[in-house]
Design goal:
The protein is 34% helix and 19% strand. It is of the alpha/beta class and 383 residues long. The strands form two sheets. Strands 1, 2, 3, 4, 5, 6, 7 and 8 form an eight-stranded mixed beta sheet that branches. Strands 9, 10, 11, 12, 13, 14 and 15 form a seven-stranded mixed beta sheet that branches. The structure holds S-adenosylmethionine.
């Protein structure tokens, strides 16, 4: 177990124990109820659900650890791809922090923190997590009760400049995922403008079709308006190719084995968590150009009757299909959705969708000895 995973497990166990200590009643039924309010019964969720003590406790004991670890693994992936600087004392701004999830995620990812600011419309959601700050031995989290849709970052940052802003599972609460594009666009540009030099804004949303597509719409808008750079998951395509089919959306997965206490709670609540899934955007100021090298895996492995294996991937020229006859290399088959192939392993067939064929050479530049061939290919698998 590496240090990040050890911190993740320690934090997850502490979160479950803390939530259990708050009330004698079993935690699992409330977790199941809150899970339904985030999924099948979404329409019934009230905007102030964090003010309900039972739901707040369920969030603390279940959604906080899963979300914090998911964000930490995403930050770690970005760091390994060279997209996320690691300052000695990372100053974090957690927007729509809830129980300080972004702060805990940054601690799990970096193993250290500088001064942090947490912002949420519901003060109780933030203060409920204060006892857990002792787990990370960090006392410096300033909490601000603010509606971020109405107030600019300058009003709560008071002159400080964060290295990392985390906006996790918040955009969809600002407005209906299909509406509110102006609010989300303004918030994104405002937060990027508030960054310290080399800073990043990480936006994370649930990996569902409606939330993923809303994030992709925001991504295309930010790219078109040339306000900020989108460093991940994209490789610099001008428009998101997955928005063309109505059933497609971009999301990634992060395998993680939760510690026993959290795994047991998930089982008792009837929630299956095979992998941590997310849709995200990593933003930087416009001056930092996104890399156009390599291909990001956006689909799972597919195998046809002849044994040929395929995976969908996304690059600067849009959607491509990696083709292995008879099979793809094991590491390409086994790589998690959202992993980056840069460079793409030599010898893979790369089929570009016909509309993107004129750019085939550019994708091949990041792809070693690939063989670009335009074809009338299938789109990404419907998920
Ligand atoms: C689903 S929770 C996410 C909490 C945490 N970021 C996480 O990922 O676990 C959404 C949070 O956003 C907050 N929120 C929603 N709309 C907001 C707004 N306009 N301004 C500030 N916070 C908001 C809610 O109070 C809630 O705590």
């Amino acid at each position: 177990m590496n240090e990040l995973h050890a911190r993740a497990a320690r934090f997850a166990v502490a979160a479950v124990e803390h939530a259990r200590s708050l009330h004698r009643s079993p935690l699992a039924p409330d977790v199941a109820r809150l899970h339904r309010l985030f999924t099948s019964d979404r329409a019934e969720r009230r905007p102030d659900y964090q003010r309900d003590p039972a739901l707040r406790r369920a969030y603390l004991g279940f959604f906080l650890p899963f979300n914090a670890v998911k964000i930490a693994l995403l930050l770690d992936r970005a760091r390994r791809e060279g997209l996320l600087p690691a300052p000695p004392e990372p100053a974090v701004l957690d927007i729509g922090a809830g129980p300080l999830t972004g702060v805990f995620a940054a601690w799990i990812a970096y193993g250290r923190l500088g001064p942090c600011v947490a912002v949420d419309a519901a003060a109780a959601a933030m203060s409920a997590a204060e006892p857990l700050l002792s787990v990370i031995a960090h006392g410096g989290v300033a909490q601000r009760a603010v509606n971020v849709a109405l107030r600019p970052a300058s009003s709560y940052l008071e002159g400080t400049r964060p290295h990392l802003v985390i906006v996790a599972n918040v955009l969809n609460e600002l407005r209906d995922p299909r509406r509110g594009a102006d609010t989300r666009g303004q918030l994104s540009a405002d937060l990027v403008a508030a960054l310290a030099p080399g800073g990043r804004v990480l936006m994370v949303e649930p990996a569902t079709r409606v939330h993923g597509r809303a994030l992709m719409v925001l991504r295309d808008r930010l790219v078109a308006e040339r306000q900020v750079s989108v460093l991940a998951p994209c490789r610099g395509a001008t428009t998101c190719p997955l928005l063309r089919g109505r059933g497609d959306w971009c999301h990634g997965e992060h395998p993680w084995d939760p510690p026993g206490a959290l795994a047991e709670l998930a089982r008792a609540a009837g929630i299956e968590k095979a992998a941590l899934k997310e849709s995200h955007l990593l933003l930087a100021p416009r001056s930092e150009a996104p890399s156009a090298v390599g291909l990001r895996l956006v689909g799972g492995p597919m195998r046809d009757n002849s044994g040929t294996e395929r995976r969908y991937a996304c690059g600067v020229d849009g959607l491509a299909t990696l083709v292995g006859t008879p099979g793809l290399p094991r590491d390409v088959v086994d790589a998690a959705r959202g992993a980056l192939l840069a460079p793409v392993p030599a010898g893979l067939g790369i089929e570009l969708r016909p509309s993107r064929a004129p750019g085939a050479r550019a994708a091949a530049r990041g792809a070693g000895r690939s063989r670009p061939r335009a074809r009338a290919g299938a789109g990404p698998r419907r998920r």
